[in-house]
Amino acid sequence: MSDNKIERHLYDVVVIGAGGAGLRAAIEARLAGKRTAIISKSLFGKAHTVMAEGGAAAAMGNANSRDNWMVHFRDTMRGGKFLNNFRMAELHAKEAPERIWELETYGALFDRTKDGKISQRNFGGHEYPRLAHVGDRTGLELIRTLQQKIVSLQQEDFAATGSYDSRIRVFQETTITELMLDGDRVAGAFGYYRETGEFLLFEAPAVVLATGGVGRSYKVTSNSWEYTGDGHALALRAGATLINMEFLQFHPTGMVWPPSVKGILVTESVRGDGGVLRNSDNKRFMFDYVPDVFRKQYAETEEEADRWYADPDNNRRPPELLPRDEVARAINSEVKAGRGSPAGGVFLDVSTRLPAEQIIRRLPSMHHQFKELADVDITKEPMEVGPTCHYVMGGVEVDPDTGAAFGRVQGLFAAGEVSGGMHGSNRLGGNSLSDLLVFGKRAGEHASAYVDTLQVRPRPAKVDVAAAVEVALAPLVRAAASSTGSSADSSTGSSADSSTGSSADSSAAPSADSSAGSSTASSAASSAGSLIAENPYTLQQDLQAVMGDLVGIIRREGELTDALKRLHELRARVANVGATGGRRYNPGWHLALDLRNMLVVSECTARAALEREESRGGHTREDFPAMNPTWRRINLVCSLSFGEVHLEHKPVPAMRAELLALFERSELSKYLTDEELAEVEEQ
Ligand SMILES: Cc1cc2nc3c(=O)[nH]c(=O)nc-3n(C[C@H](O)[C@H](O)[C@H](O)COP(=O)(O)OP(=O)(O)OC[C@H]3O[C@@H](n4cnc5c(N)ncnc54)[C@H](O)[C@@H]3O)c2cc1C
């Protein structure tokens, strides 16, 4: 394909991702006077952020005046089991309230307390009610508000320049497949319009990754189709590093029935608002699962737990509000012990705890979701719930203050779920929405400042653009070759390319679903050198089976070793993935391109999970069931070199003395090594 068929754009800052982190970064870049592009794989407005239900954690002290940034910082570090990047946790706790109030200046309308302040609700692991919310549709309000701010900036630009898009433009349904480099500097990004399959090249000296999570590598997940770890993989391929990819959050409460909706999230607000978990013996089992590190803060009897809702100052919290990793493991154990619900989960009951009208008012989406999808009326009967892959704590290793990616690449920034460090080994509910705002703003600001330091703009090399085109077209070329029996060389590449613009689905090739036959057959065929291309859907299922079965909520050495072997086998098959049809809206082709991202990110997760010989937060090793203070000092960092994932140990930055002083020694002794404790005592 010649370059002139590629739509070219020139920007200062390109933001990949239009969730909360991306939009907040883009607003900041535009406010800094930078020409800014926002790119979104899905429709504008349809990101995970919009699905966030419970709220955004910020220590505003509206519901309990004892709350402040120090308490929030402590809770976040405890939730992450002290593996958090302390500086990120500190910035987050200090700046979250300001970011929430700022949203109100953009037009957000949060639920109010009786005296007119922003209302704050309880959530797992937060000592005080801290989540600013709008019913159980907080993310919708957040995205609506940020989009409204962007529209208002575009209106200003129209008044000044006659064009709405002159300084900030949204490219929706556009997937970025490759970052462009000029030496070690970011020079832009390459991708395609999902609808037409046409290519785009963004030339820009700074890129902010805000692509969210990786959940689609698991079958049971709350994540939607876009979350294939693209930003993580783009960063790796550009020379940046990923940190602590073994830590995945399995949210304790996903729907388990009917099968078609398995994994869809049941918000933690249900438990925050009084919902309790019971097993098939009708026992409120969470009291049996309070770990030592949390024993002082959690109630020991149902009576005390129930009193806490009305009098939190004089009672301890219900154990249903333990951090998510603890609750997910507890549910897993109950089901394994044969005390699960009929559909393989446990019961979550709010119907016996709150009057129906309160449930409908406080949890309208949950009421609707269960009625529509499972024909369950949650005001009258319990829900059936079980763990679902929800959030990745690991991500792009970044400088905490600026969001600049570590590694050898310059001009790359990351914010939101795609970045790592902030949440340590386990994220507290509500801390993501505030993370997006705090670090989205910082990434936008520092990406803009970086652009100002450049004397010469980096330029993408023609050869790299051509390579990106070739990689993007390869699945189509392969499928075309396997259907005609010809070899998938570059001449076929140009023939696939020349079909661009013609109606895509006119191809006589078999449909994506029927072409692969059984995965074993096609895999065998491919290893025998045959031309049969692999079916992307089959490959995704096989990848999901490896990750779900062998790198799931409870992990073991033998299974992780097996997972790595199978991922290695999948590599060869993914390299042979084909997609029938043309470039016009072709989901099989899109998935074929996503698969290489899913695979490399999954390999990072499996490698790090095998390496970390302890259990902490979102990483549970059956063969190493305890937290190990020596491992707390270690970050596992992945990089990519000549297509191979490398893993190295890096020390966790030591917390500043005044932050350590916020914790009692008895608490620190649960996390730190003796050597570290001795140092603390000397200070
Ligand atoms: C159902 C659900 C409920 C949740 N509830 C809460 C809650 O109550 N409180 C809380 O704090 N957190 C919650 N979370 C987590 C939180 O919503 C996410 O972690 C957060 O929204 C991530 O925001 P983000 O800006 O990093 O990315 P996202 O909002 O996930 O946006 C990612 C963006 O990147 C785009 N993208 C991805 N790949 C590409 C590519 N290759 N090219 C171009 N664009 C790309 C996507 O299209 C999307 O626009 C919830 C998550 C889910 C799934």
UniProtKB/TrEMBL annotation:
Keyword entries, A-Z: Flavoprotein, Oxidoreductase
Segments of this protein annotated with the region Disordered: 482-523
Domain Fumarate reductase/succinate dehydrogenase flavoprotein-like C-terminal: 541-655
Keyword Flavoprotein set for record: yes
Residue ranges of every copy of the FAD-dependent oxidoreductase 2 FAD-binding domain listed in the record: 12-433
Highest taxon in the source lineage: Bacteria
Name listed for the protein in its UniProt record: Succinate dehydrogenase flavoprotein subunit
Origin species: Actinoplanes couchii
Name of the coding gene: sdhA_2
